[in-house]
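Anyone up for a design puzzle?
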């Protein structure tokens, strides 16, 4: 009996040992087919262009094509659900963003948990938010506008894209920080906001800087401040809000995007993807390509990306609570 048990134990050990090379080979084979990045935005926007630029940069080192799959929807729910239910093997990824954090904070229920159902890989880029007025506006500086708003409670109108966008909640955060009573007016996208500002229908707007650079340079719009920590490279003469007064000393608000895999993706696969993304974003040619798109390259480790996402969700949750915004 003893000999039989010894024989079975030895056989099991040999069998397990014989499997190890196969397991190692399977892991080393990643990726074994093209990688799909699901983007919760339409083609041609900043998120889509970031995904395409980074995807192209990592395709060579990974030895596989990177395919962009655009699935635009309110709050990125369709894209998020698609990836959360995908095989967790690293071949289906999600472009996450500040919009992902906003949705996690704003929606009462979603078919996935933004923190639990995804494994963040890396940040990809940040892009500035700006508060702007018409080129012929009475407001020449941010302090002038804030002073007028305090003297005229409820009369200042600030336009943004749709309710629930990063820009929309950024305007609410601006109001809270400035300590003003103002109306945030949502429009169906950036173009109608610009039209309303230039036509005098609203007083100011908060939006992503990139699409507005040409009009700001052409003086049909006047940028009062960017909301990030530092001045935007495209507008070196426009102050950061924190430079304009003590109320905005801690203002550091920008939009961002990153990359995530389904939860339970093997850590080795997540680390491999993260290292390739970090290496790509360290190359001057990709940094410049993103800069030409009015984006600032920014990579991170998986843990840094997770911490960043969690902090952003908490930030927007606080804004929603303080502004008494009804959850959707």
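Challenge accepted. My sequence:
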């Amino acid at each position: 009996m003893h000999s039989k048990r010894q024989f079975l134990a030895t056989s099991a050990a040999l069998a397990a040992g014989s499997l190890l090379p196969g397991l190692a080979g399977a892991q080393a084979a990643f990726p074994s087919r093209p990688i799909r990045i699901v983007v919760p935005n339409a083609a041609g926007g900043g998120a889509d262009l970031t995904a395409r630029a980074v995807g192209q940069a990592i395709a060579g080192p990974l030895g596989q094509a990177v395919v962009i799959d655009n699935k635009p929807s309110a709050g990125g729910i369709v894209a998020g659900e698609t990836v959360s239910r995908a095989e967790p093997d690293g071949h289906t990824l999600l472009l996450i963003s500040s919009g992902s954090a906003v949705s996690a904070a704003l929606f009462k229920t979603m078919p996935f948990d933004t923190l639990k159902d995804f494994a963040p890989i890396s940040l990809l880029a940040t892009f500035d938010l700006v508060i702007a007025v018409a080129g012929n506006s009475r407001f020449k500086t941010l302090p002038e506008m804030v002073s007028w708003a305090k003297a005229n409670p409820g009369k200042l109108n600030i336009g943004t894209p749709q309710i629930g966008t990063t820009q929309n909640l950024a305007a609410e955060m601006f109001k809270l920080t400035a300590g003003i009573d103002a109306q945030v007016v949502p429009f169906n996208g950036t173009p109608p906001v610009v039209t309303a500002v230039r036509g005098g229908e609203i007083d100011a707007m908060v939006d992503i800087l990139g699409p507005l650079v040409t009009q700001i340079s052409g003086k049909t719009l006047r940028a009062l401040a960017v909301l990030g920590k530092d001045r935007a490279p495209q507008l070196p003469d426009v102050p950061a809000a924190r430079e304009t007064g003590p109320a905005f000393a801690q203002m550091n608000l920008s939009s961002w995007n990153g990359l995530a895999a389904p939860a339970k993706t093997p850590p080795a696969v997540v680390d491999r993807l993260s290292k390739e993304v970090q290496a790509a974003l360290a190359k001057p040619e990709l940094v410049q390509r993103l800069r030409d798109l009015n984006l600032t390259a920014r990579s991170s480790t998986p843990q840094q990306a997770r911490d960043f996402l969690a902090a952003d969700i908490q930030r927007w949750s606080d804004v929603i609570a303080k502004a008494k915004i009804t959850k959707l």
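A detail worth pointing out: The chain is about 45% helix and 20% strand.
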